Amino acid sequence: MLSKLVISNIFSSTCTWLKKLKLIDNISGLQLFQLMKPVVFLIISIVFTKSHLTRADIGQWEMFMFIAGLMTFFWVTGIIQSLLPLYHRNKTYHKMGDNGTSRSPEIFNAFLLLCFFSVLFFILGHSLKHNFSVFHFSGNVPFINLLLLYILLSSPVCIIEYIYLLNNRSYRIFQYGLITFTAQMILIIAPLLLGKDIIWSIWGLLAVTAVRWVWLLVLLRRYTEMKISFEFMKEHLYLGTPLILTSLISGSAQYTDGVIISAVYRDPAMFAWFRYGAKEFPLVLMLANGLSNAMLPEFSTRERMRESLAKIRVKSKRLMHILFPLAMVVMIFSRWLYPRMFNPGFQKSADIFLIYSLLIVPRMVFPQTVIVGRKKTHISLISALLELAFNIPLSLLMIKWGYGLVGVALSTFIVYSIGKVFLIGYLWLKMNIKPSEYIPVRVYVLYTLLIGIVFILIDHRIIDIH
């Protein structure tokens, strides 16, 4: 009991210190939180490869996490991203302002929507679990009952960090992430260090999810007005449905590519090899998404457009100065790093990682933030349809032409770039917002050329560090 009190005081003191020094605002708080997840799972991945687990065991864990994400990421993303511009700016409650001081019925109803979809997919999963196949073996979904339980419990808790964000409790985002991700890492790794099977790590993951549920219930009582409004849910879904469909269609690189790989190769070991390489540089993905989501509420009013455009330009320029050089350094050492960080069996994963690292180029521009913030979510849907029209056929062609798994990764980079060009063009032609208003063009072009040169030098073994 004393140790728990000491730890709690340390976390509280740290967050109070950060708050006083103003080292964390809403944007950096969300960025730090979203950075913690890939860092923790990277550490877990390293421990897995150094443990007694076989590559097939690791493939089972990866498939468990992959299916859980695949069945939930699109509607969780759509509901949360559409909540941000609706918070205190919606027709149902007619609230204006962003002081975040009042209890919010919007957040409570968004939570109910997340619960509804969680139950829906839990029931759907149970009805299909004996007819669902992975790697061409019917009913071979790893730990199907625990997987469905995780899907049921894990999605609603994704709103916790955004409750803090919308109530301007940025330092609490950091505190929540630090505590829960540390606990998650310990409870997943500890069973393996004790020689237990992988299923005990899954139980550890579920235990942390249960703790997050308790945390969520406390926040709902503190920050929300528990008032059910079907009118607001209707308004929320009207704005969020295009975002849900956008995420479902385009997804992220890992989900789209993962479906293609599992369908073509039907081998859990091959899937693990690809998944270990199909990882963007964590800082890029998380800090870019954190900036984008944190800025969404700021574009919800026309009066603040110019100010918000200038702000995202400055923020993205700072990210570029940090992330592009770091990404290039990581790319140079990736072929040396992979067999040492994991094991020699994952050497070829480095080639896939090199291509995924190039996704920093489209990720460092944010036309989608402006478009979603202005509630033009149907444009994001059109962009997703455009990506889908190119991605799957191009990936299959790359495999047919002999590029294999690397070709699938390359097609992802190409189509994601096409999607961003479409959104930039829409802002310019339809909304009269020039790229230079929210993109530091000169800095961006310079870094894009530099990282392209580094990639070519590595690919042609001119830079070859093993």
What are the main properties of this structure?
466 residues, mainly alpha, 2 domains, two-stranded antiparallel ribbon, 20 helices, 76% helix, 1% strand, disordered N terminus
Structural commentary:
The protein has 466 residues and is mostly helical. The chain folds into two domains: 1-250, no CATH class; 279-466, no CATH class. It contains 20 helices and two strands. It has helices at residues 2-21, 26-50, 55-70, 73-86, 105-128, 144-154, 160-166, 170-193, 198-223, 230-250, 253-265, 268-277, 282-295, 305-341, 349-357, 360-363, 367-373, 377-400, 404-430, 441-459; strands spanning 133-134, 137-138. A two-stranded antiparallel ribbon has the order 1-2. A hairpin with a 2-residue loop joins strand 1 (133-134) and strand 2. The protein is globular and about 60 Å long. Mean pLDDT is 83; it is low at 1-8, 96-101 and 135-139.
Offer a concise description of the structure.
With 466 residues, the protein is mostly helical.
